[in-house]
Design goal:
Blueprint (H helix, E strand, L loop, with lengths): L24 H6 L13 E7 L3 H12 L4 E4 L8 H4 L3 E3 L6 H8 L1 H24 L7 E8 L5 H14 L5 E3 L1 H8 L6 E9 L2 H14 L3 E3 L6 E5 L2 E6 L2 E10 L10 H4 L1 E10 L13 E4 L6 E4 L5 E9 L3 H6 L1 H15 L7 E11 L6 E3 L9 E3 L5 H16 L17
Helix pairs in contact: 2-8, 2-12, 4-5, 5-12
Length: about 425
């Protein structure tokens, strides 16, 4: 599988445009960091976590806190895969509306899935507050803009349905959205339950804490094979083998190819970050922004007052095609930024692309395949990879500790909807 992003040199020859040619914004902001242990591979462990991105880090942090011996393996440096390419919007809102999800799986399960996602925001807030160093977490509102006039009634019904199930949501008129944030719309759905974070800093801080509890992190260590041996799984790497009671696959879109075609569709999303801005207009960077159009654009502000905008999604075919579209997709992002922030003079500083997986129901895959109950997956597909990572950490902690979890059935790999 290709890297989830590729560094790009300036694409339009502009003399004043400083497009970074090193990595996605979060890696530029934080730099590379070698974190792995030099110790030999242990002969045994309770849990081997494959993947040292944000989901793997959340899982490892929870399991190490529970007292299990944890081994973390990644073929890259930590947080240098899809985590680094994330725009890191923390939203309880799933890409499939509650209304549509209820049609797929029933309102009780749909509401529970949304409530689990909302609880994950609080889990992430607690995790960020408990870490010794700041990781850019901040709560903020989110606004979903109706792109077309026909979307207005849908958002009104969606807001009412969410309210009935205890979810923070309110329908706003176009005038309310304009008065609050200066954003043009045909109506909007507003929630106070959202946030932002620096995903690379957060991931590394979680991995450091897990390591302090005794977890072993082996970076740049690909897993060559996982095979069943009696009551354990043998995890084979170039640095040696270990036998684990559990193996958690937290590899993002790089799931085993045999599972991918029937479970997930891969897409590329494009993103840019501006230079720091003295003036963020009426928006002020105070909320997350996205829209009802599909595929949609989305926007947030960074700690140092940059505007980050993403979207222009397209099906992922290969890295060459993804990169060939970077100039045109960047122009689309810049055009959308001008529509949302018409009075803001913004200069593009970084552009990149990331690959993500999309499921039909918008929900992640968490749990084992029936054929191998000791090898659960933590695959946080869709736009909510970080919140789904927190959900996975909760579900898999219970699984590995032999406890039941009331939400596990919502995300099982063998669901048919």
């Amino acid at each position: 599988m290709q890297e989830p992003y590729r560094s790009l040199t300036p694409w339009n020859g502009a003399k004043t445009l400083r497009l970074h040619s090193g990595a996605p914004f979060w890696l530029v902001a934080n730099g590379l960091e070698e974190m792995g242990t030099s110790l030999p591979m242990p002969q045994t462990c309770d849990v081997a976590v494959i993947g040292a991105g944000v989901t793997g880090a959340l899982v490892a942090d929870g399991l190490s806190e529970a007292g299990l011996s944890v081994l973390i393996l990644d073929k890259r440096a930590p947080a240098c895969g899809s985590t680094a390419a994330s725009s890191a919007l923390l939203s309880y809102e799933i890409d499939v509306s509650l209304t549509d999800l209820a049609r797929m799986i029933g309102i009780d399960d749909a509401a529970r899935a949304y409530q689990a996602s909302a609880s994950a925001i609080d889990d992430l807030a607690r995790a960020a507050a408990s870490l010794p160093t700041p990781c850019g977490f901040a709560r903020c509102p989110s606004i979903l803009l109706a792109t077309r006039a026909g979307d207005r009634e849908d958002l009104e019904r969606e807001a009412e349905l969410r309210q009935r199930h205890g979810l923070d949501a309110a329908y706003w008129t176009p005038q309310q959205a304009a008065d609050a944030y200066g954003l043009p719309s045909k109506g909007a759905l507003h929630t106070r339950l959202a946030g932002v974070i620096d995903p690379v800093r957060f991931t590394r801080a979680l991995l450091r804490r897990a390591s302090q509890r005794g977890a072993l992190l082996f970076e740049r260590t690909p897993v060559v094979d996982v095979r069943q041996e009696r009551d354990a799984l043998a995890v084979v790497t170039p640095r040696g083998e270990t036998r684990a009671r559990w193996v958690v696959y937290a590899m993002g879109y790089e799931m085993p190819a045999a599972l991918r075609p029937r479970m997930v569709a891969l897409h590329t999303t494009y993103a840019l970050v501006t230079e720091p801005l003295d003036d963020l207009g009426a928006w002020r960077g105070e909320c997350l922004v996205w829209e009802t159009r599909r595929p949609y654009f989305y926007m947030r502000a960074t700690e140092d007052r940059r505007a980050m905008i993403g979207g222009g999604d397209m099906p992922f075919k290969d890295a060459a095609l993804r990169d060939r579209f970077m100039p045109s997709r960047t122009r689309r992002l810049e055009s959308q930024l001008r529509k949302w922030l018409p009075n803001v003079e913004a200069q593009t500083a970084f552009v990149w692309a990331g690959t993500f997986g999309e499921t039909r129901d918008g929900l992640p895959y968490i749990g084992p395949m029936p054929s191998c109950p000791q090898a659960p997956y933590a695959l946080g597909y869709g736009a909510n990879g970080l919140t789904f990572g927190a959900v996975a950490a909760r579900v898999l902690r219970d699984l590995c500790l032999g406890r039941s979890n009331d939400d596990a059935h919502l995300f099982r790999l063998d669901r048919t909807h």
